[in-house]
Design brief:
The chain has helices at 26-36, 60-63, 83-100, 104-116, 135-141; strands at residues 10-14, 17-21, 39-45, 52-55, 67-70, 75-79, 120-125, 128-134, 145-154. By secondary structure, it is an alpha+beta fold. The strands form two sheets. Strands 1, 2, 3, 4, 5 and 9 form a six-stranded antiparallel sheet that branches. Strands 6-7-8 form a three-stranded antiparallel sheet. A hairpin with a 6-residue loop joins β3 and β4 (52-55). α3 packs across α4 (104-116). It is globular.
């Protein structure tokens, strides 16, 4: 059964290959590669811009990970697919609603707002919550090295 959303995948033309990234998890990328006869690759965005390179620096394939960010030892990124993500978001919602003294209805809307954020990441700096960002914003704002699992296809 297909669980990935092909419309959310991003296509890059790299040399003689088309490479797709944006998978929600490693298994979706594996399934996509098997169904479409592609090859799993690790794609690195290492210069703070949208300039992908095929690499193996983060070891995503060996570790069966779909996403990794390196912005230095003081930063840690928790992806929305990570079980820890929900814990952080629940804590943040409680703090936010307590500060605002929101009604139960408002708390529900706050939860929906976070859920609708496009591919969110919790950003921790020195073990403390810093912000919630998207994959794309992390590339530019943190000047981080972002690695994603991708599926490559040779062009005919």
């Amino acid at each position: 059964m297909e669980t990935f959303n092909e419309e959310k995948l991003v296509k890059y033309e790299m040399g003689d290959q088309d490479v797709f990234v944006g998978f929600a998890n490693f298994e979706d990328a594996e399934r996509y590669a098997a169904q479409k006869l592609g090859t799993l690759v690790e794609v690195g965005f290492k210069d703070g811009n949208d300039n992908p390179q095929i690499t193996n620096e983060a070891g995503l394939i060996a570790q069966k990970l779909h996403f990794y960010v390196d912005a230095g030892p003081e930063y840690r990124f928790i992806h929305s697919a990570d079980p820890e993500f929900r814990e952080y978001m629940d804590q943040l919602q409680e703090i936010e609603s307590d500060l605002k003294e929101e009604s139960p209805e408002e708390k529900y809307i706050t939860d929906a707002r976070i859920e609708m954020t496009e591919d969110p990441l919790v950003v921790l700096k020195n073990g403390e919550y810093e912000s919630v960002q998207t994959r794309e914003r992390v590339k530019y704002r943190k000047h981080a090295k972002v690695y994603e699992i991708g599926v490559a296809f040779d062009r005919a």
